[in-house]
Amino acid sequence: MVEAKYTPLLLLLLRKGAHAKPVKFSSTSIADELGISQQSASRWLIELERAGIIARTGAGLSLLPKGVEGLRSLHVILSSAFVPRGVVRLRGTVFAGLMEGRYYLSQPHYRKQFKSKLGFTPYAGTLNLRLSDVALRAPLDLSSGALISGFQTSKRLFGDIIAYRAVINERVRGALIVPARTHYGPDVIELIAKENLRKALRLKDGDEVRVSIELS
Questions:
Q1: Which of 60, 103, 129, 211 has the smallest count of CB within 10 Å of its CB?
Q2: CA angle 145–85–210, rounded 5-degree value
Q3: For residue range 16-68, what is the model confidence (pLDDT) as tens digits?
């Protein structure tokens, strides 16, 4: 767990996107944002860099895995305290995606984790829904879900995935997945199951689907 005094700075870097790419941010700007002295901001940056929590390069400031993991731990603590337990119910319209789900879900490293953490090996493909009301997913975004850890091969980096157990159209048990690396906005959700959801539920583009997500 990262020392508590650094939390405001780490959250600021997270909001600026430093977990995804370096961001240009001076100690003066940080001081202004956080309401602290420039000297304190500079000292925190030095201490965090020495601790391996952030990196400072010519390209800017970056959150390192240790820093991201510290924030993730904080997220779990806050979620367990504030997020209401129960079920989130969403509705969305089926649409054809970018066909990336098939490639990602065919990766053995992901498939093993889905089996161990969700209890099933998913069909290699996602059912994509465009939500009718994005605001209804807010409790979901605050819940911790099951972490499917990313990995790296010689060719590319595969990011983390958060998975939430779900029931689709009151018939098929599966999961809603939220990849850390995605081309979609918050108005889109991706569903997986043991079977091909389009075939199992006889769905076509434009059909409405109901999803019940279990918060843990």
A1: 103
A2: 75
A3: 999 989 999 999 999 999 999 999 999 999 999 999 999 999 999 999 999 98
The fold for domain 4-81 equals Arc Repressor Mutant, subunit A (1.10.10)
Supply the CATH classification number for the domain 83-215. Answer: 2.40.30.30
Q: Find the radius of gyration of the CA atoms of the chain.
A: 20
Q: What is the largest CA-CA distance in the chain?
A: 62
At residue 185 the predicted structure's pLDDT band, cuts being 50, 70 and 90, is: confident
Residue 156 contacts by C-beta under 8 Å, 6 or more apart in sequence? none
Residue count of the chain: 216
Q: How far apart are CA 100 and CA 89, in angstroms?
A: 25
Domain boundaries, the chain: 4-81, 83-215
pTM for this predicted structure: 0.61
d(C-alpha 182, C-alpha 188), whole Å: 10
